[in-house]
Design a protein that fits this description.
Number of domains: 4
Structural class: alpha+beta
Radius of gyration: 31 Å
Distance between the termini: 64 Å
Shape: extended
Length: about 450
């Protein structure tokens, strides 16, 4: 099979009449389920599920709508490159599903037919279903939702992003308060408005869906808004379900979301996550990421963590996780530093690399700055940060402050690589040459003609 299939799953289906497992290929025009045997030669026909896509949810929604008795079927999700082997194993287990080991494996791969949550999570609400008179009785109009930026999130089964003033009437009494609003579907299929009123504080001392919070859980919820781990919450008639739990920071309401409804991304704002980071996030714990790229093109760093209220990843700008991350990094700083073969485009000799690795200082000629101009500098390993530092003076013979290259190249690198200027170079538009600390006559004349202003940042002597 194609290596690309390693990132895809397929859907196995078993009719409870015979428990024989086949691979789903789709649904026919008559609404009937189509499937084939789990053989490699049938792979082109398989309904393939991107591990992070919505094909599965969309299929199950249609399946619910078409079939009068969907509970007659059992579905299991398995990797496409292991379908033949796993379908055989699961089929044997279905013969004795009550055996604990079999039940555990079957439940791990089982896809539950939860029509209501599937529909709510992925299918936007048709506005024609909204009872606007119900909202008006709360003192809320369509215009109110639009002006507060709440209509679109609510039509996608989310809560209003802001608190909305409401004024419900009880007999002759009018109650005025602020709340977040959302739409919910009742068991009979009607759409109603859910009011998320502001609470004085989150209720952490009472069981929440069968969960009793530990002292550590309470501490995390009050400090970060997230419980910081996966918890099994209970619902009537269902097995305990792993879930993330957070606090709605606007209302102090506790919010839970099933873990299988949250996709852990492989990349966040341009930063690729390794397997360990993805696993930490999946467990509900926070990680600190640096040099993420904002929509405005600026780099930023933040703590990221799954937030149940946001139904996804949230960004938190605090210092505790950053300090924890630094301490974690410090434990690995003693790892052997790999000296690069080239620095600034200059190839190092074996002797140079040996000296650097031993903590000695070397002097490198002809390195190139970001503008492609050459400069020279003293280079020495910084063992505390596991990186190379550059100096304009020999750090072994002076107490010079760490800066950039040697004295002859100071102005050149400051202008070319750091965008700094002094009085002599403030209008220079061309890169300075090695050792140059003021513009040439040609550069001066050219910039007199252009008269283009540029920021003035005085260099420190």
């Amino acid at each position: 099979m194609d290596e690309k299939l390693n990132d895809q799953d397929v859907l196995l289906v078993a009719d409870k009449k015979d428990d024989k497992l086949n691979v789903v290929t789709g649904m026919g025009e008559d609404g009937k389920l189509k499937s084939v045997s789990p053989k490699p030669e049938n792979e082109p026909q398989f309904l393939k599920l991107d591990k992070h896509g919505n094909i599965l949810e969309n299929f199950l929604t249609n399946f619910h709508r078409q079939y009068k008795d969907p509970t007659h079927f059992q579905f299991f999700k398995v990797p496409v490159n292991m379908v033949e082997k796993m379908s055989s194993s699961l089929q044997d287990m279905l013969k004795q599903p009550e055996v604990p080991s079999n039940k555990e494996t079957l439940d791990k791969h089982r896809v539950l037919l939860d029509e209501n949550s599937t529909k709510q999570a992925y299918k936007p609400i048709d506005e024609s279903r909204i009872d606007w008179k119900q909202l008006e009785r709360l003192g809320v109009t369509r215009d109110t939702l639009e002006k507060t930026g709440s209509l679109d999130p609510m039509l996608n089964w989310g809560k209003s992003p802001v608190l909305i003033p409401i004024s419900p009437k009880f007999d002759e009494v009018t109650l005025r308060t602020d709340a977040r609003l959302s739409f919910r579907e009742t068991t009979d299929g009607k759409l109603t408005v859910a009011i998320h009123a502001v609470r004085k504080e989150p209720q952490l001392d009472k069981p929440y869906f069968g969960v009793n919070f530990t002292e550590e859980d309470k501490k995390n919820l009050l400090k970060t808004g997230n419980v910081g781990r996966l918890l099994n919450f209970e619902q009537t008639g269902q097995n305990p379900t792993p879930a993330y739990i957070s606090i709605d920071k606007l209302t102090n309401e506790l919010v839970a979301v099933r873990a299988d409804k949250i996709r852990i991304p492989k990349e966040i704002k341009g930063v690729k996550l390794d397997d360990k980071q993805m696993q930490v996030l999946k467990e509900g714990k926070p990680i600190y990421l640096e040099d993420m790229l904002s929509k405005s093109g600026k780099l930023f760093s933040a703590t990221v963590q799954v937030n149940a209220d946001k139904k996804g990843i949230e960004f938190r700008f605090d210092s505790d996780q950053k300090q924890s991350q630094k301490q974690s990094n410090a434990t690995t700083s003693n790892q052997e530093f790999t000296v690069p073969k080239k620095i600034g485009g200059v190839e190092l000799s074996d002797a140079d690399r040996t000296q650097l690795k031993a903590g000695e200082t070397i002097y490198i000629y002809g390195m190139k700055d970001k503008q492609g101009q050459e400069y020279n500098a003293y280079v020495k390993l910084n063992p505390d940060e596991n990186k190379l530092n550059f100096y304009r003076w020999n750090p072994d013979k002076s107490k010079a402050k760490e800066v950039t290259p040697d004295n002859a190249s100071k102005t050149q690198v400051a202008v070319n690589s750091e965008g700094k200027t002094n009085e002599a170079t403030k209008n220079v538009k061309e890169p300075l040459k090695q050792g140059q600390n003021k513009p040439t006559e040609d550069q001066t004349n050219k910039n007199e003609d252009q008269k283009i202003p540029r920021p003035r940042i005085r260099m420190k002597n």
